[in-house]
Amino acid sequence: MVAGVAFTARISSGLMASRLPAWPLRQAGCFQDETKMKVVLKEGLIVLIPQSNEDSSELVRWKAAHADHVLAVRADQPDVSSVELHDLGPRLEACREPLNVVSTSTDPLARIISNLATTPFELDGRRYLSIESFWQGLKFPSETERQRLAAHEGPRARSEGLRQKYEKTISYNGQDIAVGAWDHWQLMEKACRAKFQQNEDARSALLATGDRPLIHVVRRDSRSIPGVIMAQIWMRLRNELKKIGR
Fold this sequence. Notes:
The chain is of the alpha+beta class. About 35% of the residues lie in helices and about 20% in strands. It has a 6-stranded antiparallel β-sheet with strand order 3-4-1-2-5-6. The chain has a two-stranded parallel ribbon with strand order 7-12. The chain is elongated and about 75 Å long.
């Protein structure tokens, strides 16, 4: 046997989620007669072992191009003795693994989507450094205080906002709005829309999540805007951006 890199993948419920996946295909999906890979079948596992230097090199390239993809076993032809493995795409998207959008996430996409990220935008004539700067500023009835918080980055705005309790209503553009109600949430959506429309980094991050479900799970959920509402806002805005091709 020629030394090479073996392909290893695990199968679960008809799906094969592979760390370094691939079934190398050559010349319209067939191996040449003179070079055949050794196949080892085990419970929930397929191993391909190259038998030539050429196959080894090809397998390495295939694995690199499909790292962390999901492969599906085609099972609609039970009378056929061969097996087809179809690439469903990257694991996170193919399995629709939820992305928890929080500022402390290890995922850079989640961090920049989060409300604490420094993603400057303008709304109704005022510039904010982050969504948190806007949201916490609503607690303050004074426009001077709101302007001051608008210039703070997310963590500092949050810290100052936590020391200021909500009244039953807030005032915005001359309108009294009940805290924690639909109109209050609409202000959050309006601000987030401005953020993702105006800030290229934030917009790219949101679109890069594809069709993955977004969630917002924190240790202590917000009473003014629960995590489930926040997540719905992000996903709704993501769909809007997709429709307008941005």
